[in-house]
Each structure stands twice: as C-alpha cells, then as structure tokens.
Amino acid sequence: MTFDRLWINARLATMAPAAAGLGEISPGAIAARDGRIAWVGPMADLPATDEAPERIDLEGRWITPGLIDCHTHIVHGGDRAREFELRLAGATYEEIARAGGGIASTVAATRAASEDELVIGALPRLDALILEGATTVEVKSGYGLDAESEARMLRAARRLGAERPVAVATSFLGAHALPPEFAGDADGYIENVVSEQLPLVTKAGLADAVDAFCEGIAFSPKQVARVFDAASAAGLPVKLHAEQLSNLGGAKLAAAYKALSADHIEYLDEEGAAAMAAAGTVGVLLPGAFYFLRETQKPPIEALRAAGVAMAVATDCNPGSSPLTSPLLAMNMAATFFRLTVEECLLGVTRNAARALGRLDEIGTLEVGKSCDLAIWDIERPAELVYRIGFNPLHARVWRGR
Asked: What's the chain look like in SS3?
C-alpha cells in the first residue's frame, strides 16, 4: 500500500458506529493518502508500504476525529456585553429581546459591518475553536435579516474556510428574528425570507442548509413551515432552533421535514423525541446558552435516550446567549448540567455532530475513505477531554491529512 503520512504507536478512539463504545484501538495506527484516511487499525495489522511515508510516532497519545462544532453564530457585528450586565441585574433574555435588545441590537451592528469587517471579527472566534481541535465548524447567518446583509454574512462565513485550514458548513437563518422594518408583520417578513432572501443565497450557492427559530419571540410553526417548504423546493436540508423557551412543537415539525437537527430542545416532550427518532433528526444540545442565560429547564435526556435520538453537543457561539468558543468546555457543561456520559459527550462533538450537518459520510469517525481530520491529545484517557476545565491538552491537529 502507498501512504503519504503514517501515525503510529497511538491510542485511537475511532467513534465508528460498528464498534463498541468509543471504538478504542490500542496500540493503533492511522495512515493518510491524498487527504483521506487510507488505513486505520491495530499496530499489529499495519500493512507493508510500497514506499516510506512520513512516519510520526505518537508515543501513546490519543487520536480522535477532529472535533465538529455543529451550531455556531460566529459571524456577526458588535457584542452584547451591556446586556450581560442587564441580565446580572435580573432582566430575562425574553425581556431584553422584547425591549429591542437581543438579536435586534446585533442586527444593527451586523448590517453596518462590511464583509471584510465580519471576517476579521469572526477569525479570533474561529481560531479559538481550531486551537481546541475543531476541524469542521458550522456558521449561521441570521443577523442581517435582509437579502443583502444575509448574503454578506454567508459570504464572510465561506471566506473563513479560505482563511484557515478548516471546513465551514453554512446555514441560512433568515427566519431568526423580526427586523425593525417588519415590526408587527411576521407574515410579511416570512414572505420576504422565502421570496427574496432564500432565492438570493441559493442562487449564489451560499447555504448548505436552512435554519429557523421557532419560538414565541420569533416565528410560529406555521411560519417556519413556509420557510421549510421553500427550502425543500430549493433542494436544501433544514434544521431548527426548537423548544428553547417553550414547547411549540417545533421539533415535531422539524422531524416532519426530515430535518438534520433540532437544536436547544430544553422543552421537548416525549412525542417530539419520538418524532425526531423516527426521522433520524439529531438533537443538538447547547449547554453554553443554558448556562449563560441561567436557565433551569434541562433537555429531557432520558427521553432522548429512550427514543434513540442521537445527541450532538455544540458551543452555540453567539454574542447574546452563548459567547462560548470552547468545545471542550461545552462537553464539560453537557456532562455537568445535563448529565451526559463521557461517551455521549465525545460522540456529540464527532460522529453525531457530523450527522447533524449531514456530513457523516465524510467526517466524524476514523474510518477508511473519510477526510483525514484528526485531533491528537496529550491525555491518558478520553474522559480527560470532558473532565478538565480551562485546560487544553491538544498536541496536534490534522486537517485533510496535513
């Protein structure tokens, strides 16, 4: 066999679905060719190579798939530190939003920012994710709320993937909030989303998926369905911010459209969980927002487990409710607040996160043929990645074999 690069004397957590637990192999090796995994397995089974590839002795370090942050809003203008102060004084997220703060304040800052400024502002947030082993990051629009501004956000997101060695998945989130020019006319704004914004970003090839916010302070299930119908007609998969502050049946609606994921889901009921399981819709848990907003309603983890819903974990990095740029801390929060196991957390930022992006055929596990995206860790056991707080044991990061 011919390899470009070979990592030996490693301990592997393959996350492969056919394997038990984390799919551990020790001692193991993994080889890359043309940016993809060409071989993975026990050291004892390592095949002879036709020529001497670059060999890297990891001396017992652990390799996991590169981490995947499957829910972020890292492209935006401004910040909302002042609202943080207001929340500390007792104001709720919903009260701030209804008073014209929240998403609306970020919309104003984002509309005022150029594409270059959006890229420059997002790069430090992206770099923080990369430094903790992220090799794929999802980025949403949703702070422009008009056709030109939403397209500008998505162009900036695409540019991030050219500025850094990372894969960027983009989600069009025009149905995120009601902009000031459509105050009191949610149906009119949804018409704008489906007739102007979505066609523009679709024609330009800027979106990999379509997202929406189904909530009392955002859009109703009927309005979201209009967006999803338009997305389906455009050939784009959908995902949904659902059941974050109340239960409007958003997750069940998302499942009806075979959504890639339903995200937040703190107020999800058993019926919604069953619908998600039947549709193969991933439940994306966002403990950063739960923590930052000081919420008390936790996602129904036991119901998700009982229904067989795959659970992903993400940072939800955004300026208002989760200014978090640490996948490692997101895992610790998911374990501490939501009582996920170590295995669930690690699968949540690898295999299940890949499923939430519709990219499991390319990333998320250490299997032959997939992109050679690796995170190499100075740890003695995988639990350390979930257990430690404020400590980054990343030894090296590999993206597409490099």
From this structure: CCCCEEEEEEEEECCCCCCCCCCEEEEEEEEEECCEEEEEEEHHHCCCCCCCCEEEECCCCEEEECEEECCCCCCCCCCCHHHHHHHHCCCCHHHHHHCCCCHHHHHHHHHCCCHHHHHHHHHHHHHHHHCCCEEEEEEECCCCCCHHHHHHHHHHHHHHHHHCCCEEEEEEEEECCCCHHHCCCHHHHHHHHHHHHHHHHHHCCCCCEEEEEECCCCECHHHHHHHHHHHHHCCCCEEEEECCCCCCCHHHHHHHCCCCEEEECCCCCHHHHHHHHHHCCEEEECHHHHHHCCCCCCCCHHHHHHHCCCEEECCCCECCCECCCCHHHHHHHHHHHHCCCHHHHHHHCCHHHHHHCCCCCCCCCCCCCCECCEEEECCCCCCHHHHCCCCCCEEEEECCCC
Q: pLDDT, tens digit, for every residue of 135-159?
A: 999 999 999 999 999 999 999 999 9
pTM, whole model, 2 decimals?
Answer: 0.96
Report the 10 Å Cβ neighbour count for 66.
Answer: 27
Residues in the chain: 402
Asked if 2 contacts 34 with a C-beta cutoff of 8 angstroms, the reply is: no
